[in-house]
Design goal:
This protein has 15 helices and 16 strands. By secondary structure, the chain is of the alpha/beta class. It has 2 domains: 197 residues, Aspartate Aminotransferase, domain 1 (Alpha-Beta Complex), CATH 3.90.1150; 254 residues, Type I PLP-dependent aspartate aminotransferase-like (Major domain) (Aspartate Aminotransferase, domain 2, 3-Layer(aba) Sandwich). 51% of the residues are buried.
Length: 473
């Protein structure tokens, strides 16, 4: 790298502080709300990833590929509602039907069942080959309920997961997410308050490592209730699972009497109008869905084999208390989900080739912008021989030119990548260009255009020049 010898911690911290100061001056309207927000909310918000220093942009409206903040900036957005808005912010496909429903006296919670729940469940089951489905409101709840069902069905206590995999802020999900540089692994608890009796029963294996998976199944197989796995890992770096790894997971869980849970909260309906698992030609015992299926409304689901799902119903004695919460299957959420699933089914031939092509263009544009400035950056989010195209991307700054980030361990290890550049510095530098990214990039939607990718490229060119100037001394 052109300026590697100058990339020390003090220079990085000065660069980031300069960016914070410039951003604070650029966005005084959002800045004015900082103290007010922090008086009533921890750090000024209710979801950690949405917060940043010195303060996040406060959004007043959103449409298509852009959001608009308190300072009147039109910000090109690649976060897109935690990657949920595959049709863009507030797509008329959804909002017009929701507005009609509200005006006709339908949409808020009633506490009753309705036809929409049936229609939406039918759509989801047909699209994913699931036998039964139950809705709730978040990916966190979906994965928690899926694990409860697996433990009850098998009568076993252990949960196997992948290092770097995020399965929500629930007890079995809060181990093995963050990388521990001291031990060079993910083998630790990520939150206070988790009982040791829970964390000790979570086994962490390595992503795309079939041999380590086989070793863990041999050692603990008769105690493992389930292996929960993302076919396209999210927080671990937007990396697709290898075909051999997924097939090994299916074979081993079946032979050991464990359940395979595919966490498709991110991957479901992202690559085609169905599950990512079907692209690997495997059928999990359970799968969890969220984000895209709600069309921007709070919808998630657990779907899978009837014999397992029925433990949450009267047929199975109701032994698993999967009630979903007050707002499960919320009327307007079900309406949005039905519209979304129908639209993706009916327009798959246009939606997925378009966003996959733009995703490829976005990743290439970012890499080119930094390469032209003499800064080595690499994107993840590319597909593989099974997932042919992808509309997702993250950006990393490896310490070795040409190094290809391919494991969750790479994405979290400060000895391999300049982590602060790819997170805080790049986010701030691009906000100063009215472009918003998460983990260096994010996801594209059908609302993004070729012009938006050009705008991203130009913004990255200017961000790259900032980085270059900061470290060239």
């Amino acid at each position: 790298m052109l300026f590697e010898k100058n990339m020390n911690n003090s220079t990085t911290q000065k660069f980031i502080q300069d960016l914070r100061n410039e951003y604070a001056a650029y966005s005084p309207g959002s800045g004015k709300l900082k103290d007010r927000a922090e008086q009533v909310m921890m750090d000024g918000g209710s979801h950690t990833i949405r917060l940043m220093k010195p303060f996040p942009p406060r959004i007043v409206r959103a449409r298509g590929s852009c959001v608009y903040d308190e300072d009147g900036h039109e910000i090109l957005d690649f976060w897109q509602g935690h990657h949920a808005n595959i049709l863009g912010h507030n797509s008329p496909v959804l909002t017009e039907k929701l507005a009609e429903a509200f005006s006709s006296g339908f949409g808020l919670q009633t506490g009753f069942t309705d036809l929409l729940q049936i229609e939406t469940a039918e759509l989801l089951c047909r699209a994913t080959a699931a036998e039964r489905v139950r809705f709730t409101t978040s990916g966190t709840l979906a994965t928690m309920y899926a694990i409860l069902l697996a433990r009850a069905y098998t009568g076993r206590d252990m949960v196997l997961k992948v290092g770097g995999g995020w399965h929500g802020a629930q007890p079995w999900g809060l181990k093995g997410v963050d990388f521990n540089i001291a031990t060079d692994d993910f083998q630790h608890i990520d939150s206070s308050g988790i009982p040791l009796s829970v964390s000790d029963n979570v086994i962490v294996t390595r992503y795309n490592d079939s041999q380590m998976l086989e070793d863990n199944m041999k050692r603990f197989g008769d105690r493992i209730a389930c292996f929960i796995l993302e076919p396209f890992i999210g927080a671990g770096g937007f990396l697709p699972a290898g075909g051999e790894f997924i097939r090994t997971a299916r074979t081993l869980t079946e032979s050991c009497g464990s359940l395979l849970i595919l966490d498709e909260v991110i991957s479901g309906f992202r690559f085609h109008a169905g599950s990512a698992g079907s692209l690997y030609q495997i059928t999990p015992d359970l799968a969890t869905y969220g984000k895209i299926i709600g069309g921007g409304m709070p919808v998630s689901a657990v779907a899978g084999r009837a014999a397992v799902m029925e433990l949450a119903g009267s047929k199975g004695g109701g032994t698993v208390k999967f009630s979903g919460g007050t707002y499960c299957a919320h009327p307007s959420s079900m309406l949005a989900a039905r519209i979304q699933l129908e639209y993706l089914r009916d327009n798959a031939g246009q939606v997925y080739p378009y966003i996959n092509r733009l995703g490829e263009a976005a990743r290439k544009a970012v890499e080119k912008a930094f390469r032209n400035a003499g800064v080595y950056a690499c994107c993840t989010g590319y597909g593989n021989d099974i997932i042919k195209g992808s509309s997702l991307g993250m950006v990393f700054f490896p310490k070795k030119d040409g190094y290809c980030v391919s494991l969750p361990e790479d994405t979290r290890n400060p000895e391999i990548c300049h982590l602060e550049l790819g997170e805080e510095a790049l986010r701030l530098a691009l906000l100063l260009e009215d472009v918003h990214v998460m983990h260096g990039l994010g996801s594209v939607s059908t609302a993004h255009s070729e012009e938006d990718i050009s705008r991203l490229y130009e913004a990255c060119c200017r961000a790259a020049e900032r980085i270059k100037r900061a470290y060239e001394v």
